[in-house]
Amino acid sequence: MKNTQEIAARFNELAQQEKWFEIQDEFFADNVRSIDPPDSPYFGYAEGKSSVRKKGEDFVKRIEGLHSAHTSEPVVSGNHFAVGRALDITVQGHGRIQMNQIMLYEVKDGQIVSEQFFY
């Protein structure tokens, strides 16, 4: 079973290639939670691997243009790790947006059990 440091390293490898669904397939627990800020105009809350997957797929479908994307190296502490993510995208219904966020992940028993976004 991989520890948090090992999961964060593999996460980073995939994130640098923009392989977000591969991250979900490889590490997300069946009961994973995906949490956005309560007042987010873009996303809400999803629970369960298939619901979190659908949330991601729905977002990707709305992207009309990817201008730039960058994910920082992970910072690991205990059973959590965080990355910084900067996106410059054109999104259907919102136009062009620059999103700078912190993405916080919780690991339990070798799987990611929650992702939380701060922006």
Outline the structure in words:
With 119 residues, the protein is α+β, with helices and mostly antiparallel strands. The chain has one domain (4-118): Nuclear Transport Factor 2, Chain: A, CATH 3.10.450.50. It has three helices and seven strands. Strands 1, 2, 3, 4, 5, 6 and 7 form a seven-stranded mixed β-sheet that branches. The N and C termini lie far apart (32 Å).
Summarize the helices and strands and which ones pair or pack.
Elements: H1 4-15, H2 20-27, E1 28-35, E2 46-47, H3 49-62, E3 63-71, E4 75-77, E5 80-91, E6 95-108, E7 111-118
Parallel strand pairs: 1-7
Antiparallel strand pairs: 1-2, 3-5, 4-5, 5-6, 6-7
Helix pairs in contact: 1-2
Key descriptive features of the protein:
single chain; 119 residues; Nuclear Transport Factor 2, Chain: A; 7-stranded mixed beta sheet; 3 helices
